[in-house]
Amino acid sequence: MNQSFWKMHGAGNDFILIDDRNLNFPDQDNDLIERLAMPKYGIGSEGVILIQPSETADFRMRFYNPDGSEVEMCGNGARCVARLAHEIGVAPKSMTFDTVAGVIAADILSEDHVRLTMTTPKDLQLHAEIDLQDQTLSYHFVNSGVPHVVVEMDNLAELDIQSFGAAIRYHEAFQPKGTNANFIQITGPDSLTVRTYERGVEAETLACGTGMVACGLIAGSLGKVSTPVKVTCASGDILEIDYEQTENGPEHVTLTGPALHVFKGEIRI
Questions:
Q1: Residues 68-107: tens digit of each pLDDT
Q2: Phi and psi dihedrals of 102, rounded to 5?
Q3: How far apart are the first and last CA of the chain?
Q4: How confident is the model at residue 265 (pLDDT cuts 50, 70, 90)?
Q5: Does domain 122-256 match CATH 3.10.310.10?
Q6: Domain 2-119+259-268 has CATH 3.90.550.10
Q7: Peptide linkage before 53 cis (omega within 30 of 0)
Q8: 3-state DSSP call for residue 93?
Q9: How far apart are CA 221 and CA 202, in angstroms?
């Protein structure tokens, strides 16, 4: 069959988006998803996103990593799918959509900027420790839709993120599903820079929406930044993280940033 698709990106984090409201896409075929996402040999992307019907929201978002594994949520992908869903008539400017992580609300703020209201973060841990590469590593953790470790660094630009990120991602403390690994450097009273090793991509990504949220939440919870937090990712784009700090932890979390089209095409499956 011939399958139409859109290629989009959020802050350099790129995706293949497919309108699958008729539920015809073979989403159980991990090899197919891997081939589509493969650079040079396929369309190339850091994720495949399906728009499917929902009984409780405007639509359902399904997200697959380049290795074909389905994950709970992707912040940059969610902004892209919200923009596309509005443009093709699936959802109004203010919408809700189902994800494995829960129901997400989105608002189209302009032609290319979207604000997401995220699910409530969980499992917040500050000042935890693991043994890693012959040292004791101090880290923080939160599930902002997917699991994220956050480590503060002084020399972010010099970090060997492929080696260090993979060591955290596959550490026994985070098995069986593993974790994403984020490394931050505080750059101002309400700003920070982040680099992310993304689970499923198995490499550094130019941006990770849920990772930016995790970094903003943790830096704020540590008292190192005030909200809204401006987070600069590896692509150079700046995403804004806002939330309310309550006695139960961070709540009413929003993520605002770009959602841009690259091209539309058709591929034979």
A1: 999 999 999 999 999 999 999 999 999 999 999 999 999 9
A2: 135, -175
A3: 5
A4: very high
A5: yes
A6: no
A7: no
A8: coil
A9: 28
Write out the residue limits of the CATH 3.10.310.10 domain(s) in the chain. Answer: 2-119+259-268, 122-256
The per-residue pLDDT for 258 is: 97
Q: Residue 134 above 90 pLDDT?
A: no
pTM higher than 0.70 for the full model? yes
Helix axes 209-221, 75-87, angle to 10 degrees: 130
19-40 pLDDT tens trace: 999 999 998 999 999 999 999 9
User: Cα 244 from chain centroid?
Assistant: 20
Report, as residue numbers or ranges, the catalytic residues: 74, 208
143: Cβ contacts below 8 Å, ≥ 6 apart:
121, 122, 123
CA dihedral 175, 102, 29, 65 (to 10 degrees): -60
> What percent of the chain has pLDDT above 90?
94
Phi and psi, residue 246, nearest 5°? -115, 175
